[in-house]
Amino acid sequence: MFHQTQYPPGRFRWDDRTLDVSGEVRGTLHGWFRAATGEWYGLVSYAIPYAHAEITGQLQLEDQLVPADALRPRLYGRERRA
Question: What's the superkingdom here (predicted)?
């Protein structure tokens, strides 16, 4: 996996691309994959809300590998599939 060594400037500023990643979001788990080193990853689609109050949309992320320890089973009703 590539590790980024240079980051954007450290000063915080709000703009129309600032995301609110402070909470949990709903997602759809499509499957499980195991890394060569033994860790499990879920293939997940989910949306992250923008932090700016005037922006109502969300950033849609499709088929993202997420570490298993960042996922949990949902605690609400069953989703019906068509």
Answer: Bacteria
